[in-house]
Amino acid sequence: MASPSPIVEQLRLTGLVPVIALKDASDAEPLARALLEGGLPCAEVTFRTSAAPEAIRRIAKAFPEMLLGAGTVLSVDQVKEALDCGACYIVSPGLNRKVVEYCVGKSVAVTPGVATPSDLELALELGLKVVKFFPAEANGGLAYLKALSGPYGNVRFIPTGGIDESNLLQYLKFPRTLACGGSWMVKPDFIAAKQFDKIRDLTARAVQLMLGLNLEKLVFAAKENASGLAGVLSNLMLQPPRDGNSSLQVGSQFEVLKQQENAPRDMVLIGTHFPDRALYFLGRRGVQAREGGEFVLADGVEGVKLDLDLGGLAVGLVPR
């Protein structure tokens, strides 16, 4: 299978696309800044308002690092206008053959909306492998999406419509979901009231909800006397150690590795719902995976070490 386009891959790593309707183009820069400060370098500005072209132009100029899409695109003329203004991908609510054919011919990433098997088959006929499932909740939600996607194994979806904090993770954990579109962080009322700090905070909360970064456990590589260290932790936590083949577990957040030839350093393990997405977002903050830092824990969980030191402890990223 061919590798995904850079735009599609960035959408996958970003995971969440804010869907924005702007009535006043002067709100474009502060809104984009709020999204970036909240940790989300992505936006879909919809052509539902006359301010959309100028808003796209302003964001593209001020924040070239933003993955900027144009949404609710209904005609080839709107595609041309959006691209001229600086959009790098196109989104439409339905499957307009002329729009899709024009984008495919120009090698522009396009994700039209689908809701039925017939829509999907037309998308496949036009050469697409990523489509928007819209409106997601009104069309039966995740249960319907799972049923719809069953016969079409090579298609990935961007569910949009009715998605918020209550169901975001459910959609993202479905393996066929590429990313999700949502507008709860960028509601028109927030924009009209110039509540960009609230948009920033809701965006940061959405990113954290998606990634689920949390302390998973502390791993101690006891070269000698693993049972003694486990005993100290057992007394501290008032829990007896659980003896495994290669480690001793104390509670849910301490593990002491038994003596082994190539034991790793003591390590803080950070859990996440999506390790590859977490690495993308951490990378934007200057935290990279350590070259050759892959490891396997005693229970078979695979992780990767980060290229940083935490008070003498290594730091690893593992799936939750």
Radius of gyration in whole Å, from Cα?
23 Å
CATH level-4 homologous superfamily of the largest domain: Aldolase class I
> Major beta sheet, specifics?
8 strands, parallel
User: Which percent range describes the beta-strand content?
Assistant: 25-35%
For the termini, the CA-CA separation is 29 Å
The tally of beta strands, per DSSP, is 16
Topology pattern, helix = H, strand = E: HEHEHEHEHEHEHEHEHHEHEEEEHEEE
Q: For the residues shown, what is the average pLDDT?
A: 94
Shape type: elongated
Stated plainly, the CATH topology of the largest domain is called TIM Barrel
Query: Which CATH top level class of the largest domain fits?
Result: Alpha Beta
Structural classification: alpha/beta
Could you give a short description of this structure?
With 320 residues, the chain is an alpha/beta fold. The chain contains twelve helices and 16 strands.
Write up this protein:
There is one protein chain. The chain is an alpha/beta fold and 320 residues long. It has two domains: 206 residues, Alpha-Beta Barrel (TIM Barrel), CATH 3.20.20.70; 106 residues, 2,3-Dihydroxybiphenyl 1,2-Dioxygenase, domain 1. Helix content is 36%, strand content 26%. It has twelve helices and 16 strands. The strands form two sheets. An eight-stranded parallel beta sheet has the order 7-6-5-4-3-2-1-8, with helices on both faces. An eight-stranded mixed beta sheet has the order 10-11-12-9-13-16-15-14, with helices on one face. It is elongated and about 70 Å long. The protein starts with 5 loop residues before the first helix and ends with a strand. The mean pLDDT is 94.
